[in-house]
Amino acid sequence: MTQGVVQSIAGLLAIFVLAPILVIPYWRIFSKAGFSGWLALLILIPIINLILLCYIAFSKWKSATGSSI
Asked: If pLDDT is split at 50, 70 and 90, which confidence band does 64 have?
């Protein structure tokens, strides 16, 4: 096998292993905060993930109870 094929296989393996490790916890967090769990898929897109986290962090959570900071 050539080096390019090995790198492609390693890249695909990394995607299928790392993507669920990232997406599943964010899906649970977004769902518990009252947002759609589907937003967790945006975590996989560079720059968009930072914008999404800032949006979630500074928006009013629908499921939040008690006083807000």
From this structure: low
